[in-house]
Write a structure and sequence with these properties.
The protein is mostly helical and about 190 residues long. The protein is about 75% helix and about 0% strand. Helix 1 runs antiparallel to helix 2 and helix 3 runs parallel beside helix 6. It starts with a helix and ends in a 6-residue tail after the last helix.
């Protein structure tokens, strides 16, 4: 059973990492394409202003796209997925940002240190449960569609409850691990 859970853990982390890398790559490509398109449009306007309509028309015949009317929707989807799935990936691998770790090395009593760690993971799990609950409610209530692609908005928002559920599951595992450490036989100083 433990081997199966470790295999699932490896695959969850791998999938979250690939989603984050894909979304980041898509954002980079879209940004470069959008900047290039704007520069080409500016060049065409400049050439028209300088009386070089023939050159401007030639460039315009090669580059037939004037703008990405769907750009905002795709950016919103990619950015939300990058942020939330990336955060879940960092949470799973315990590489997320933590401000509370400077306290535990200062606690000399091992039992108190274990209690402190247990309290921290409990607070984290409560936060993830609240985030999951309210993001799920928001996602399920959404009936709107996007302007360009007519995609249901809940698809864009679904990354929040999915990633918070993943982080909640990992937080529950952390609670179990820290509880076992805390309730073991007390460590003698």
């Amino acid at each position: 059973m433990i081997a199966l859970l470790k295999t699932i853990d490896v695959w969850v982390q791998r999938i979250l990492r690939y989603i984050a890398m894909t979304m980041f790559s898509a954002l980079a490509i879209l940004l470069i394409a959008n900047i290039s398109l704007r520069l080409i449009n500016d060049l065409i306007q400049f050439l028209n202003g300088q009386g070089l309509e023939g050159v401007a028309t030639a460039i315009q015949s090669v580059v037939t796209i004037n703008s990405f009317y769907w750009f905002d929707e795709v950016i919103e989807l990619c950015f939300a997925a990058l942020v939330f799935y990336g955060a879940a990936g960092l949470w799973c691998s315990k590489q997320h940002f933590s401000v509370g770790d400077w306290i535990s090395p200062r606690i000399k009593n091992e039992n108190l240190k274990q209690f402190y760690k247990l309290v921290i993971v409990l607070i984290s799990a409560i936060f993830m449960a609240i985030l999951f609950w309210y993001s799920l409610k928001l996602t399920l209530k959404t009936n709107q569609v996007t302007t360009a692609f007519q995609i249901k908005q809940w698809i864009l928002y679904s990354c929040v409850p999915i990633s918070s559920l993943i982080m909640l599951i990992y937080s529950i595992v952390d609670i179990i691990v820290e509880s076992k450490k805390f309730f073991q036989e007390p460590v003698q100083p």
